[in-house]
Write a structure and sequence with these properties.
The chain has 505 residues and is of the alpha/beta class. It is built from 19 helices and 20 strands.
Length: 505
């Protein structure tokens, strides 16, 4: 079996979130199962600045974008830590504008007023990329059985496959493209890629596709909807999230489309890359440890307290969070309950960046509790590892969470997660109820109502066990550390999904 993964970001090259981690790890796990994998992504400036070696290929193509012809070229590299090839689409005008120093990211930029805005031509950028994915197959002579598309930035590839490439004018290419099956993964339904309807001609798509049944969505073109409609099979990143997105509450307007396609929709929990996230191997930690000997975690905690200039005290509960600073992540709940817990002596370490309202809130909290609160605005991969290792309790009170990776990292690092039971959090963290604890299943603390009171009650339970029941706390840690949330498990589920997709031909 051959599989081509297409995504707008891949860890080791360019990353804004969990999508990049998934696409850097899943193809390697699939390759280990005997599936011949490759990856295609845009060539951003960040890719040129990465540590991964890039090699230009003499493979060029030209695509119509409205009334102009845009040229592209392929470059080659490999996934970090493996032999899976990565092909990067070069188009400097579209993709090489990112520059952290000037506030320019791969999707968005920060204006002079401090507002974060999408690039106005994202429709053209990722429309071009979607067609480039299909051009790459021809140029590389890599004909996958499964084209695995990830999130809205690749959503139009399924449209182009069916409308332009499968009815190709050249019979030999027509047959090649006709054999390709398309799996589309929704990583976060809230980000859909919606653009004005007059982009249809620029994208090279006939107006006949601009209907409620195909690409139209409330007067706009919706790339995520296109990916869902055109896919042979749809997956998302946890079974609970697959159910939640079929409701009006979390369906983000696409619940009706997903309900119509629910027979072809499945949820597979993401894995973690254990080559990168393993406290017994992690080179970033003050001390290494594992479930059998967790003594090194105390040194990691002291090092983290020193880093943030907190009082170094092994008995003080250290809470932590590594996250985008966004409403989705439950920072309004953290804001509501943090002061009362801090006044009772806990510590809090937070790493992340995002909405300025939450940046200001965290800085204010640090000013009020300078010896108890540590805040690092921005993203720091090394510090993320040290926080996971040094904290006692990890906070993840998300409004919704398609899968989440940090609760999985926390389990692996013996840091007890306190989560809202939504999406992947509900699928991966087992609440320490009396029954679950007695059965040896408990791995953390969960709450459901999205209220400060429910969050505070869950955290209260965690702190009570931490302070008053040290043996139970150690058992909870060990149970979490023994869970298998590796990509080996997830890759097996994806392989079955691919086989089912091919059997439907």
């Amino acid at each position: 079996m051959k599989c081509l993964h297409a995504a707008s970001e891949v860890a080791g090259f360019a990353k804004t979130g969990g999508l990049a981690d998934v696409v850097a790890a899943l193809p390697l796990a699939l390759q280990a199962r005997g599936i011949d994998c490759a990856v295609v992504m845009p060539l951003y400036r960040a890719c040129r600045n990465s540590t991964q070696p890039l090699k230009p290929l003499d493979l060029r193509f030209r695509l119509p974008m409205g009334n102009r012809i845009v040229e592209g070229r392929l470059w080659e590299s490999t996934l970090p830590g493996g032999a899976v090839p990565v092909y990067l689409v070069e188009q400097p005008d579209y993709f090489e504008r990112d520059d952290r120093a000037t506030g320019r990211g791969i999707y968005q930029f920060t204006n002079d007023a401090g507002e974060t805005l999408d690039y106005e031509d994202n429709s053209a950028r990722y429309g071009f990329f979607a067609r480039a994915i299909l051009e790459a197959m021809r140029l590389l002579n890599f004909w996958p059985d499964i084209l695995h598309l990830h999130d809205w930035q690749t959503g139009l590839a399924g449209v182009y496959l069916h409308e332009i490439y499968q009815p190709h004018g050249k019979p030999d290419l027509r047959g090649r493209y006709a054999s390709v099956r398309n799996v589309f993964t929704i990583h976060n339904l809230a980000y859909q890629g919606m653009f004005w309807h007059l982009d249809m001609p620029m994208l090279g798509l006939p107006w006949g596709l601009y209907t409620m049944e195909r690409l139209e969505f409330h007067g706009k073109i919706n790339f995520m909807k296109a990916g869902i409609i055109e896919a042979d099979r749809i997956s998302t990143v946890s079974p609970t999230y697959a159910k939640e997105i079929q409701t009006t509450l979390l369906g983000c307007g696409l619940h009706g489309v997903l309900m119509q396609r629910n027979r072809h929709l499945t949820g597979i929990v993401n894995g973690i890359d254990e080559r990168v996230w393993d406290p017994s191997l992690d080179p970033h930690l003050a001390a290494r440890y594992d479930g059998a000997n967790i003594t090194g975690k105390a040194r990691c905690k002291a090092a983290l307290q020193q880093h943030f200039k907190l009082d170094v005290n092994p008995g003080t509960p250290l809470l932590a969070c590594v996250s985008r600073l966004a409403a989705q992540k439950g920072f309004d709940l953290i804001e509501s309950i943090a002061p009362s817990f801090l006044r009772r002596g806990v510590q809090l370490a937070i790493l992340g960046d995002g909405d300025k309202v939450y940046r200001a809130m965290l800085l204010k909290l640090r000013d009020e509790f300078p010896h108890q609160v540590g805040v690092h605005l921005g993203y720091d991969e090394v510090l993320a590892h040290r926080i996971e290792a040094g904290a006692d309790i990890y906070l993840m009170p998300s409004k919704y969470e398609p899968c989440g990776l940090n609760q999985l990292y926390s389990l692996k690092y013996g840091t007890i997660p306190v989560v809202r039971a939504t999406g992947g959090l509900a699928d991966t963290v087992v609440d320490a109820s009396t029954e679950n604890f007695a059965m040896g299943r408990a791995t953390g603390f969960a709450f459901l109502p999205y209220t400060p009171a429910a969050f505070a009650q869950a955290l209260e339970r965690a702190l009570a066990m931490y302070r008053d029941q040290p043996k139970q706390w150690q058992l909870l840690r060990q149970t979490g550390m023994l869970q298998d949330w590796s990509w080996r498990r997830s890759a097996g589920e994806y392989e079955r999904l691919y086989q089912e997709t091919l059997q439907e031909i």
